[in-house]
Amino acid sequence: MSRLRCGRTRRASWASRFAVPAGRGGWLRLFLLAATVATATPARDARPQPAADEGGRGDGTDVLVTVGEEPIVKADLTAALRRLNAEALPPGEARQRATTLAIEQLVDERLLRMEIARQKIRATDADIDRGVAQLIAQGMPPAEAAGEQVRKRLDLEVCTKKLLLPQLDEAALAATLEKHRRELDGTRLRLSHVVLRPDPGRGDEAIPAAVRLAEAIRAQIVDGGMPFAEAAARHSAGPSRHRSGDLGLAVRGSPHHEAFAAAAFALEQGELSRPVVTPFGVHLITVTAVEPGTADPRALRPKVEQLWARRALADLLARLRQSTSITYAPGVPHVDRDGPRAALTPHDPGASGSN
User: Fold this and answer.
1) Residue 63: inside a domain
2) To the nearest whole number, what is the mean pLDDT of the chain?
3) Structurally, how many domains does the chain consist of?
4) Residues 198, 101 share a domain
5) Are 234 and 271 contained in the same domain?
6) Nearest to 237 by CA among 228, 226, 245
7) Which letter, b or e, does each residue of 202-232 get, where b requires 16 or more Cβ atoms within 10 Å of its Cβ?
8) Angle between helices 170-184 and 301-323 (to 10 degrees)
9) What is the pTM of this model?
10) Is 266 exposed, middle or buried, given 0-12, 13-18 or 19+ CB atoms closer than 10 A?
11) Can you tell me the distance from the alpha carbon of 134 to that of 329, in angstroms, rounded to the nearest whole number?
12) Backbone φ, ψ for residue 291 (5° rounding)
């Protein structure tokens, strides 16, 4: 393989074919917070809040988090866990992760409601009725769709859309399309990787040590001191080392772990990734060939709007978290936003592990 590049050469704008009149169809139903919580990891020193029969007042009014001056109480968490179908999880890591996710969703929802109130944004009964009708059309029982809790969440969704819509224009959509083009249009990438398995005997140091080794290997490849194929043969722990690290062709949505796939589809041909941590190890990824997709850009508009909406929502929440005081009660599990972007989990079903 020729010497790999670190930089990026931008292609001529493909998004210029995209512009069509803006419409209401195709807007993402805002499943709030998935973008900000899914890649976060629980704080290492977090411990689950005691259940009502283990401590506290037991009436659901124990304050778990204070957002600005507004409390989030135990009853809010119980309802959120019910929405996530997490109540049946046994005590342990899975339950704590679900609790962490629920708490962070509650914090972000509270931040959004506060910002919506500050900007005096309102949802009309007609707005909410349209949402109820859509849910019924999608198969939700009418009595459930018309329930108070569903209408309350539809109110938040409608108001959040009104909060974000002023930022939506053709330039923003075109930029989003250009950034995510290969993820959407059926482009196929031929991928190779070097995968290092962290040494479990090193405990908490296992992943950082593997990342440092990956950085050292990467430096040798980029500097021209070692071809990628040789690095794969020498260092990779997967069977693809016998094929110069080759994993074959992949489209976005192939059964690779999300962190792996996201890093791969951000690369240009010949570019070498930084170390990527997945449940299967620490990877260096390169793209050896590109087969461009052929999808009509105009047909991609709904998916592009979804991507834009998720990014706009994540950016808004990040700003609100920076500007708002958020205090967690002792022992309440929450997100360590300065922690690693991915953690090794032995039971993750994602692909790339055996290669």
Assistant:
1) yes
2) 81
3) 2
4) no
5) yes
6) 245
7) eeeebbeebbeebeebbeebeeeebbbbebb
8) 110
9) 0.65
10) middle
11) 39
12) -110, 105
**What single-letter amino acid sits at 234?**
R
Query: Is 315 contained in some domain?
Result: yes
- Is the pLDDT confidence value at 16 over 60? no
- Give, for 72, the enclosing helix (H) or strand (E): strand 70-73
Which long-range contacts (C-beta less than 8 Å, at least 24 apart) are formed by 219-225? 221/4, 221/272, 221/284, 222/3, 222/4, 222/6, 222/272, 224/3
* 317 plus 243 within the same structural domain: no
DSSP 107-146: HHHHHHHHHHHHTT----HHHHHHHHHHHHHTT--HHHHT
Task: Copy the structure tokens of residue 225.
Answer: 């001191």
214 and 116 both lie in a single domain: no
Instruction: Tell me what pLDDT residue 33 has.
Output: 40
Is residue 312 domain-shared with residue 280, that is, in the same domain? no
Measured CA to CA, the distance from residue 135 to residue 143 in angstroms comes to 11
> What tokens appear for 253 in the block?
């949505």
- In the 8-state DSSP scheme, what is residue 4? P
pLDDT exceeds cutoff 70 at 24: no
pLDDT at 255: 82
**Closest alpha carbon to 311 in 182, 115, 180:** 180
Q: What beta strand segments (E) does 140-205 contain?
A: 188-196
